[in-house]
Amino acid sequence: MDAPPRWLTQDEKAAWDSFIRMQETLIGRLSRHVQADSGMSAADYVVLVSLTERSDGRMRFLDLAKDVEWEKSRMSHQVTRMAKRGLVAKEECPDDGRGAFIVATPAGYRAIEEAAPPHVEHVRRLFTDALTPNQLKTFGRICKRVLDHMEKQPD
Questions:
Q1: Which member of 20, 76, 108, 152 has the greatest number of CB atoms within 10 A?
Q2: How many of the other CB atoms lie within 10 Å of CB of 41?
Q3: What is the pLDDT of residues 102-124, one digit of tens each?
Q4: H or E stretch at 98
Q5: Which helix H or strand E contains 93, and what residues bound it?
Q6: Quick one: CATH architecture of 33-151?
Q7: Is the dihedral of CA 90, 52, 126, 128 positive or negative?
Q8: Which residues of 104-120 are buried (b: 16+ CB within 10 A; e: fewer)?
Q9: In the chain, which stretches have pLDDT less than 50?
Q10: CA-to-CA distance for 140 and 126, rounded, in angstroms?
Q11: Phi, psi of 3 (to 5 degrees)
Q12: Which residues contact 29 (CB under 8 A, 6 or more apart)?
């Protein structure tokens, strides 16, 4: 027999609702700003950040999809769009004929270098400036704890 649902308490629901509203509002605003400031979509920005944070600017396709928490099909469509605009390139994986590397191109590096300063300023204005240094550390620890917990849970 299935166990009954463990409904959220009033406090749990209030915390969850506030988190979701904050996250959706913040991501929505940051996405609109990155588009307006750079012409890139938020998805372009996320992919380029993941790639350019690596010393060689490349990642295996599946590792990149996992890094940004996307399904393979979404990543495939995104990479195709970005490759058409010259922001990334696909390279064969020499030790795995089925695998591929996604590589940030010089144009991709230029795009992220131009988009990052205004993006960081928006992050600061909309997020970090709202918190004291102590609150920011606490928030970071809470986020890390939830992420660590999720790593232990099945999808």
A1: 108
A2: 15
A3: 999 999 999 999 999 999 999 99
A4: strand 96-104
A5: strand 88-93
A6: Orthogonal Bundle (1.10)
A7: positive
A8: bbeebeebbeebbeebe
A9: none
A10: 16
A11: -70, 145
A12: 122, 126
